[in-house]
Amino acid sequence: MTRKRTVGRRDFLAAAGGALGLIASPRPGGAAAGGPAAGPRDPAGLRRLLEELEAVGPRFWSVPRQDGEFLHFLVKATRARNVLEIGTSHGYSAIWMGLALEETGGRLTTIEIDRTRHDLALKHVTEAGLSQRVALITGDAHAEVPKLPGPFDFVFLDADKDGQVDYFRALYPRKLAPGGLLAAHNAIRQAGAMRDYLELIRTHPDFDTVTVSATMDDGFCLSYRRRSP
Question: In percent, how much of the chain has pLDDT > 90?
Fold first, then answer.
């Protein structure tokens, strides 16, 4: 049976334990196992970059700090290695997920329709030292997703809310791995615009779905694709 419940911010951020402190300094030896080599990262520089992006975040419709930390936590907790983001904006959430992928040895593909935002994201991802970890695509994700090989084990949906059903149909079943996770942002504040997607995913026989808030204001619709028995 598909389940729906809401989990508060305290439950997850307490478990995350201050994500920035965990990711600011690279582990001994640099790169994650199986991933490209990473040079030393300046923790103070990374903090400044994240703070600068947070200051202008509302202009770019980017996730708030708590949601960036939560994405970082989810990618590591699921041991995701092939991650897709639909809706890069200026690269803030891509940085959080890219930093998590340094631990799992994975890669992020992120798609942005606006060239100016794409260029800003490329600059910010490079400044964060993640250019080898994150592949940025500029274009309409409705056209770009069908071209991607997949399968992905983690997908973050944060673009046009009324286009979620189309994204789902492009991803499922061939481009979303069994055991994979779909994370759709703004599932509380923009639930009306996402109504068709939320109804589809909450009643889909192959998915378990919960609504989770890290901010107690807005949140994610998280949908886990069940593995075959």
Answer: 76
Question: What domains are there in the chain, each with its CATH number?
Answer: 6-20+42-225 (3.40.50.150)
Task: Report how far residue 12's alpha carbon sits from residue 216's, in angstroms, rounded to the nearest whole number.
Answer: 12
- Average confidence (pLDDT) over 87-95: 96
CA distance 155 to 112: 14
Read off the pLDDT of residues 142-161 as tens digits, 9 standing for 90 and up.
Answer: 999 999 998 999 999 999 99
Q: How many CA atoms lie within 13 A of 48 on its CB side?
A: 6
CA dihedral over 96, 73, 102, 42, signed as positive or negative: positive
Which residue type does 77 have? A
Kindly state the tokens that stand for 118: 């794409």
Q: Give the whole-angstrom CA distance, residue 140 versus residue 143.
A: 5
| Phi, then psi, of 21 in degrees rounded to 5 | -65, -25
SS3 21: helix
**Residue 134's beta-bridge partner residues?**
108
Whether the Cβ atoms of residue 214 and residue 16 lie closer than 8 Å to each other: no
State the pLDDT confidence band at 83, using cuts at 50, 70 and 90: very high
Sequence-distant (6+) residues with CB within 8 A of 33 are 105
Instruction: Name residue, tokens 């989810």.
Output: 74
**pTM for the complete prediction?**
0.83
- 116-137: average pLDDT: 96
- Measure CA 102 to chain center: 14
Which range has the worst mean pLDDT, 34-38, 61-65, 124-128, 179-183?
34-38
Amino acid at 71: L
